[in-house]
Automatic annotation (TrEMBL):
It holds the Pfam family DUF1285_N. InterPro entries: DUF1285, DUF1285_beta_roll_sf, DUF1285_C, DUF1285_N. This is Proteophosphoglycan. It comes from the Bacteria. It comes from Thalassospira xianhensis MCCC 1A02616.
Length: 193
């Protein structure tokens, strides 16, 4: 059995254990502590150090993944909860679609596990900048406290379709996109004098 097959086999056994049984009397799931599962910055899921190569298995784990208020990531089933390590965020936005024009446009993003999300009031966009390089890292909010980081190509598409809003009171130009009649800021520039 290859290392990848062994990782998949172990991950499948973990999934079976996590999904087994239901707590009696409506109790909360039992906390199992940390398990040897992680998600790399590139969105690759690992179990015991080996990548989980089957996307179907990754999707199963992703369906029970949650992030708490402190930023911890948990696999939560009716019976058990187990914390996993996530390097940055759990998912990567790998595709963008836009329909409509102007403020009424709708922007949809697809994650690396084929989940689609529309930019809207509940699924906002935020952009962080590296303190040393100034390089942007854009994120879209998902459900259950999770986020997806936009890959470079998707972010460039977003920038390419961006609108500019002049704010005379601050002397800045807000750059961003509209989706579901809401403006999502990507960045700001100083207005020309």
């Amino acid at each position: 059995m290859s290392k990848n097959e062994k990782t998949v086999d172990l991950a499948e056994k973990l999934w079976t254990r996590l999904r087994a049984g239901k707590p009696a009397g409506g109790r909360h799931p039992q906390i199992c502590g940390d398990i040897p599962m992680s998600i790399g910055r590139d969105g690759t899921w690992f179990y015991q150090g080996g990548p989980i190569g089957r996307i179907e298995l990754v999707k199963l784990f992703a369906s029970v993944l949650q992030r708490d208020e402190e930023g911890g990531h948990w696999l939560v089933t009716p019976a058990e909860m187990a914390r996993i390590e996530v390097e940055d965020v759990a998912f990567i936005a790998v595709e963008l679609e836009k329909t409509g024009e102007g403020e009424a446009s709708v922007i949809r993003l697809r994650t690396n596990i084929d989940q689609w999300v529309e930019l809207d009031e509940s699924h906002g966009l935020r952009v962080e900048h590296d303190s040393e390089t100034g390089e942007p890292s854009p994120y879209v909010k998902l459900d259950r406290g999770l986020e997806a980081r936009l890959n470079r190509a998707v972010f460039y598409q977003l920038v390419d379709m961006a609108d500019e809003i002049m704010e005379p009171e601050t002397g800045k130009v807000r750059i961003g996109v509209y989706s579901h009649n809401k403006f999502f800021e990507i960045g700001t520039l100083e207005a020309d004098q």
